[in-house]
Amino acid sequence: QGQEKLSCNPKKENGTHVVLCELGNPMKAGVQITVDMELSVSRLEDMGDAITFHLQLQSKNSPSPSNASVTVTVPVEAEAEMELRGNSLPAITVLPTSWHWVDGSRRLEDHGIKVEHVYELHNKGPGTVSGVTLSLAVPHLLGDHVLLYLLELGTEGGMNCSHHPALNPAQV
């Protein structure tokens, strides 16, 4: 008939997290009650595809071997929004018309004007992410001619990186 807030106490029993809620006492025979519970569970990333709750109703007054018990399985869906930001330094590069590639040279300036491309991958949440793969395709050839000479690849923030075999082929 009315709504009341329950007093609930979390505790740990045999490695299991238990939440004990007192519904009230005494209750008359045949009384029906509805309980809506909202649980906040942290670190769901490690839970897999679902989390299972075991709910049991027990009476302190008259212990019964058939205490009502139910298992509820709730699917876990992680949500995170990723954002990729990129920038080139300098933003605009103009090659002189008289410039030509110097084949076999180990001098950087003989392979073109240095342009640095910086990419940042941001997690906008709300969940955390792991196992993310970012594939970046850089056009380095135009037909049989070198368009961009890929010199090096670096990362920050504990990321693993694998790179294309065309990275610094002349060992400049």
UniProtKB/TrEMBL annotation:
<dbReference type="GO" id="GO:0007160">
    <property type="term" value="P:cell-matrix adhesion"/>
</dbReference>
<keyword id="KW-0325">Glycoprotein</keyword>
<protein>
    <submittedName>
        <fullName>ITA2B protein</fullName>
    </submittedName>
</protein>
<dbReference type="GO" id="GO:0009897">
    <property type="term" value="C:external side of plasma membrane"/>
</dbReference>
<dbReference type="GO" id="GO:0005178">
    <property type="term" value="F:integrin binding"/>
</dbReference>
<dbReference type="GO" id="GO:0007229">
    <property type="term" value="P:integrin-mediated signaling pathway"/>
</dbReference>
<keyword id="KW-0401">Integrin</keyword>
<dbReference type="InterPro" id="IPR048285">
    <property type="entry name" value="Integrin_alpha_Ig-like_2"/>
</dbReference>
<dbReference type="GO" id="GO:0008305">
    <property type="term" value="C:integrin complex"/>
</dbReference>
<feature type="domain" description="Integrin alpha second immunoglobulin-like">
    <location>
        <begin position="3"/>
        <end position="76"/>
    </location>
</feature>
<dbReference type="InterPro" id="IPR048286">
    <property type="entry name" value="Integrin_alpha_Ig-like_3"/>
</dbReference>
<dbReference type="Pfam" id="PF20805">
    <property type="entry name" value="Integrin_A_Ig_2"/>
</dbReference>
<dbReference type="Pfam" id="PF20806">
    <property type="entry name" value="Integrin_A_Ig_3"/>
</dbReference>
<dbReference type="GO" id="GO:0033627">
    <property type="term" value="P:cell adhesion mediated by integrin"/>
</dbReference>
<feature type="domain" description="Integrin alpha third immunoglobulin-like">
    <location>
        <begin position="83"/>
        <end position="171"/>
    </location>
</feature>
<dbReference type="InterPro" id="IPR032695">
    <property type="entry name" value="Integrin_dom_sf"/>
</dbReference>
<dbReference type="GO" id="GO:0001525">
    <property type="term" value="P:angiogenesis"/>
</dbReference>
<dbReference type="GO" id="GO:0098609">
    <property type="term" value="P:cell-cell adhesion"/>
</dbReference>
<keyword id="KW-0472">Membrane</keyword>
